[in-house]
Amino acid sequence: MTDVLSRAEEADQVLDRLSRDGSWRFRREGGLMQLDPGQELWQKIMASAPAAAPIPMGEGTAYPFLQSCANRLVSETVPPERQPVRPLRLTLKCLEAGELSRLQEELPMEIAVLQRKHEPLPTAAGLYILAYLKSLN
Predict the structure, then answer these.
(1) Domain tally for the chain?
(2) Are residues 110 and 79 in the same domain?
(3) What is the number of H-type helices and E-type strands within the chain?
C-alpha cells in the first residue's frame, strides 16, 4: 500500500504509463493505493528465481521448519505460469524485510491450502527461501 496519490503531483500520469502495458495492477482505497505486479511480471520473477538445491535436514539452519517447507516446494518443478502468486508475494515480502519468523509461521498454511485443493505449489518461493537461507551461513 502506498500514499503516492496524495504526495505526487503527477501520480495519475505515472500510473497511466505503468498500467498501459499491463505489467502493473492498481487498486485504490481512499487516499491509498495497492500496487501489484501483473501476471506477466510475476512469471518473470518466478522464472528468474535463483537455482538452489534442497538443504539436507542434517545441515541445520536457524529456521528448520522453513527449510523443510522450502525443500518441499522445490521437490516438484512447476512452470511459472502455473505457480500461485500469493505465497510467492508473501515469501518475497518477508525475505526483503528479514521477517523469517513470520514467513515460517504463515507459509506452511498457504502450502497446506494449496495441497488440500490439489493445486500447484510455488516452486519459485522455495528457491528464493533456500537461496536466502544459504546466504545466512
Answers:
(1) 2
(2) yes
(3) 7, 2
Residue 7's contacts (CB-CB under 8 Å, 6 or more residues apart) are: none
Helices 85-97 and 100-116: angle between axes, nearest 10 degrees = 170
Q: How far apart are CA 71 and CA 126, in angstroms?
A: 7
- Note whether 17 and 53 are same-domain residues: no
- Domain shared by 12 and 47, yes or no: no
Angle at 27 between CA 115 and CA 119, to 5 degrees: 10
33-65: pLDDT as tens digits: 777 777 788 888 888 899 988 888 777 678 888
The three grid cell numbers given for residue 125, joined into one nine-digit string: 518461493
Quote the pTM value: 0.78
Shared-domain flag, residues 52 and 18:
no
